[in-house]
Design a protein that fits this description.
The chain is an alpha/beta fold. The protein folds into two domains: 3-164 and 209-233, Rossmann fold (3-Layer(aba) Sandwich), CATH 3.40.50.720; 170-207 and 239-307, Alpha-Beta Complex (UDP-galactose 4-epimerase, domain 1), CATH 3.90.25.10. 41% of the residues lie in helices and 19% in strands. It has ten helices and 14 strands. It has helices at 12-24, 42-52, 67-72, 74-95, 135-152, 178-191, 212-220, 242-252, 277-282, 291-307; strands at 3-7, 27-31, 56-59, 100-106, 116-117, 155-161, 163-165, 196-200, 206-207, 209-211, 228-233, 240-241, 258-262, 271-274. The chain has a six-stranded parallel sheet, sandwiched between helices. Helix 1 links the parallel strand 1 (3-7) and strand 2 (27-31). Helix 1 packs across helix 7 (212-220). The protein binds NADP nicotinamide-adenine-dinucleotide phosphate (NAP). Residues 8, 10-14, 32-34, 37-40, 60-64, 80, 84, 104, 106-107, 161-164, 177 line the site of NADP nicotinamide-adenine-dinucleotide phosphate. GO terms for molecular function: GDP-L-fucose synthase activity. Pfam families: Epimerase. Its EC number is 1.1.1.-. It is an enzyme of class 1 (oxidoreductase).
Length: 308
Amino acid sequence: MVRVLVLGATGFLGRHVVRHARRLGCELSLASRRLGHDLANADGCSRLLDQVRPEVIVNCAADMGGVVDAARRPAAMLTTNARLLVNLYEAVGAVCPQTTIVQPVSNSAYPGDAALQREPDWRDGPVHDSVLPFAPTRRLLYALAACYRDQYGVRSVNWLVPNAYGPGDDIDPTRVHALNGMIIRMLKTRRRGERRFTIWGSGRPVREWCYVGDIAKILLTSWDRDDQIDPVNIAQRQGHSINVIARLIVEELGGGVELSHDLGYPDGAPTKILDDELFRERFPDFRFTSLADGIRRTIRYYRQVLFR
Ligand SMILES: NC(=O)c1ccc[n+]([C@@H]2O[C@H](COP(=O)([O-])OP(=O)(O)OC[C@H]3O[C@@H](n4cnc5c(N)ncnc54)[C@H](OP(=O)(O)O)[C@@H]3O)[C@@H](O)[C@H]2O)c1
């Protein structure tokens, strides 16, 4: 039985990692602030690793939030995200250097203007200003992984992750991932008996979406692989515009909602999708959850948590 420590186990991705790890029969330890571990505290982080001595750490701990939250408290967010990573690598180097660290890296770490996100280019340009409170720390993660491998032999397996959606996310629409936020707002619109739904922006930007459970599965089947300091995309090379997603949600809810746009919201880059060549080499048979299935499961989840 593999001894796995999930950091950020109470978060959106962390919960799915925990669920899959249970199915795989791992010996599990969980950590997050809600569970009494502030990993931004270096001593606390090191004590935890000393107690658990994990073979694998799946690192889903981060100070996240939507763009609105990031704009409200950018300094605090950046500082915590940098501390979480520095503390983790420092503690692993000192306490358990034989541990493998598996971690998602948000694709917001790509250059802000990259339409097709290809791994060799992921550090070839500045990140978008709107993601300054966390995206640069994902590049710090890469540097830490490389330096701690060179000095202490620590193994890291890093994955670049597209926009996630699915059950288990926050219920505050300003903090959740974009697709989940749209489902929440649409469910509330219908609940109020309104027939018009306003999309924030033109709805034209095309993004790649990935069901959160798929990301968790991939993280959990990759710890025994070779060191992967240079992150690989978890990718389908497939994008859908916000308008298409909105229409899919409306369809799933049985129709009867008219879509309009609030052009006061900025659109961001027109297209962002991830190249899948390296991913397909590593997981040639992986079948991603279809968008329709994923949206159906997400709607079911939010119906339960919002209106019970
Ligand atoms: N590109 C994407 O859309 C995408 C998608 C999925 C995941 N990711 C990456 O996956 C990671 C997790 O994202 P998420 O969406 O799951 O975030 P999330 O829902 O906000 O969860 C973050 C987790 O980190 C924990 N945490 C935060 N600060 C902590 C601290 N000081 N000490 C201990 N635990 C702390 C939180 O615990 P408490 O709530 O108990 O404080 C929570 O369990 C991030 O690195 C993110 O970039 C990216």
